[in-house]
Amino acid sequence: MERLVEQPSSVSDLARGLPISRSAVSQHLQVLKSVGLFHDHAEGVSRIYRVVDRDPLSIIPSYFDSFWRRSLDSFREAVEHGEETP
């Protein structure tokens, strides 16, 4: 997602350097496209993906920061009270 925020890209460009296959990147993009985060268009034999609106993406880092903070707080609390964690 960060790469697409910076510039529109093809699946091949996005997959380069990632530890997952081009097919997996394509599947992820299709899901994100289906919820309206990305658009794509044909350019030669490639599909170029671009971010629809950058504003909704700005909440993602704070969401994950909050998620991990709550998760780690719960884990710390369980350890301090000698509880078993799921």
How would you describe this protein?
The protein is of the alpha+beta class. The protein is built from 5 helices and 3 strands, in the order αβααββαα. A 3-stranded antiparallel β-sheet has the order 1-3-2. It is elongated.
Q: What is the topological layout?
A:
Blueprint: H1 2-6, E1 9-10, H2 11-15, H3 22-34, E2 38-43, E3 46-51, H4 54-57, H5 59-80
Antiparallel strand pairs: 1-3, 2-3
Keywords summarizing the entry:
86 residues; elongated; three-stranded antiparallel beta sheet; alpha+beta
Mean pLDDT figure: 84
- Number-wise, the strands total 3
General shape: elongated
Q: How widely separated are the two ends?
A: 31 Å
So how many helices? 5
Question: Which parts are unreliable, with pLDDT below 50 for 5 consecutive residues or more?
Answer: none
What fraction of residues sit in β-strands? 15-25%
Largest sheet: 3 strands, antiparallel
What Rg is obtained from the alpha carbons, in whole angstroms?
18 Å
Q: Name the helicity range.
A: 55-70%
Strand order of the largest sheet: 1-3-2
Which structural class fits the helix and strand makeup?
A: alpha+beta
List the helices and strands in order.
Answer: HEHHEEHH
Brief account:
By secondary structure, this protein is of the alpha+beta class. 57% of the residues lie in helices and 16% in strands. The chain has five helices and three strands; from the N terminus they run H-E-H-H-E-E-H-H.
